[in-house]
């Protein structure tokens, strides 16, 4: 019945997170993420061969943007973003295979990008440029 050592580093991290949220303000941070999301959506919509899977409103959207590049397996796109451009994304069915049946993306799934409060504008531009290069290579072949 020994209780063990308390997770002091976890408790300290939680305290730091709460203090950060109180200092910055949740509304301010949310607006910042929404600006990032809209910039990514707008940028991806301008690229030939990119299909977005997003809602019309950002609020129910959440903080993830799903997309595919025509004639490219999402796993290959994710691999290239990582290895060629140093960009981390999630790929696949995202624990929701039935949703992908509905979207018509089963069994490959989608590529998913999730900006956060620490994402910088230049990182978004780098991401959009990278997706644009991959998409351009696909449409030119």
Describe the structure concisely for a colleague:
The protein is an alpha+beta fold.
What does this structure look like?
There is one protein chain. This protein is an alpha+beta fold and 141 residues long. Helix content is 57%, strand content 11%. The protein has six helices and four strands. The chain has a four-stranded antiparallel β-sheet with strand order 1-2-4-3, with helices on one face. The protein is globular and about 60 Å long. The protein starts with 7 loop residues before the first helix and ends with a helix. The mean pLDDT is 92.
Tally of DSSP helical segments: 6
> Which residues sit in consecutive blocks of at least 5 with pLDDT less than 50?
none
Q: Which strands sit side by side, in order, in the main sheet?
A: 1-2-4-3
Distance between the termini: 66 Å
Strand content: 5-15%
- Mind describing the biggest β-sheet? 4 strands, antiparallel
Number of DSSP strand runs? 4
For the residues shown, what is the average pLDDT? 92
What's the assembly state of these chains? single chain
Inertia-based shape: globular
Radius of gyration: 18 Å
Which structural class is indicated by helix and strand composition? alpha+beta
Strand and helix order = HHEHEHEHEH
Task: State the share of residues found in helices, binned by percent.
Answer: 55-70%
């Amino acid at each position: 019945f020994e209780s063990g050592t308390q997770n002091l580093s976890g408790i300290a991290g939680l305290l730091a997170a709460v203090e950060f949220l109180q200092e910055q303000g949740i509304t301010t941070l949310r607006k910042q993420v929404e600006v990032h999301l809209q910039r990514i959506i707008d940028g991806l919509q301008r690229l030939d061969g990119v299909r977005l899977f997003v809602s019309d409103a950002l609020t129910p959207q959440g903080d993830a943007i799903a997309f595919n590049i025509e004639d490219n397996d999402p796993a290959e796109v994710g691999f290239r973003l990582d290895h060629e451009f140093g960009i981390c994304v999630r790929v696949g069915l995202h624990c929701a295979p039935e949703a992908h049946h509905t979207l018509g993306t089963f069994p490959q799934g989608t590529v998913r990008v999730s900006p956060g409060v620490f994402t910088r504008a230049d990182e978004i531009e780098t991401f959009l440029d990278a997706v644009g290069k991959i998409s351009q290579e696909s449409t030119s072949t």
